């Protein structure tokens, strides 16, 4: 098995790593890139395009990849690789889903996932067919003081076919662009074609973890894959970032859906078992409290399950808003104290909302926030939260609230 060295750089412009160039990059992280490009490169052996890419890629890493940003002499790939890579937050989450000694990351990219897997596995094979990117990861691993990532400049599926022995887990984040660089969403249209490669992958490992686009339809993915044991829907600050499918060889029982919303001070979780027989929740007019599920729960489609689990009542089948007389403090989403419910009538609104300032959310209403603001003259901001929604009797109302969390 060929193991790449952490010393020799064959395809990278090592002049980028000199002290004066690194100082230039760091001193221009807040500069206007277009103006910088217009001035041209102050170095004879580095183009302004190379400098601009290092600056832009490092800029994008500041919040997404703080470990890389804070480490000296990191070599950055084209900025699109930074845009497409996992964040450190999501990489850490997925690294804790699986255990073992040897893992193969067969679509390694910039290596953020491999970095976090390397903290828990004895050996991580990072497979990347792009020679320059593979070398960048190889070099950066040394800068990050990681000794157990073995970079392999090879097609990941080919690596699995040629690997002698067994792996504890195979991780794959298939490319979601076709040969014309257009976005694709079905797993069969990605590279590699995961559904068609499953037999090969399962021949070397009993566990496969797949990362997919947050836009992927869950039912579509389940139909394309086999042996799905768990689906993790990962949101960060209420924005769904990743869908993770954990497959286990020969598994054919129920599928566990795990939703997680990672916030600054807490993490919201809601788990349930996928069932094709939907349970029917109770319905009600607005009571004392209102609840809006986080985006991970909404992506999971657990619209009835969450109502039944927390003993809440739904306002309408398609609104996905919930209500109760007793406060559910651990609800995975936003919670509000209902102050009043008023019909969508301009004269009544003028009387009931005299401050003319509120945060507005639309759920199953038929009009956009912009239309509502134009018609009601309610400006954005303040401490009042309004949900424009439809009740069970099909009436359009504004539910006026104060936020609890």
Automatic annotation (TrEMBL):
Which Pfam families does the record associate with it? PG_1098_Fer, Thump_like
**What region holds the THUMP-like domain?**
333-400
What SUPFAM superfamilies does the database record attribute to this sequence?
Answer: S-adenosyl-L-methionine-dependent methyltransferases (SSF53335)
Going by the entry's taxonomy, the superkingdom of the source organism is recorded as: Bacteria
Q: Where is the PG-1098 ferredoxin-like domain?
A: 289-332
**From which source organism is this entry?**
Tenacibaculum jejuense
Q: Which InterPro entries match?
A: PG_1098_Fer, SAM-dependent_MTases_sf, Thump-like
Instruction: Name it.
Output: Uncharacterized protein
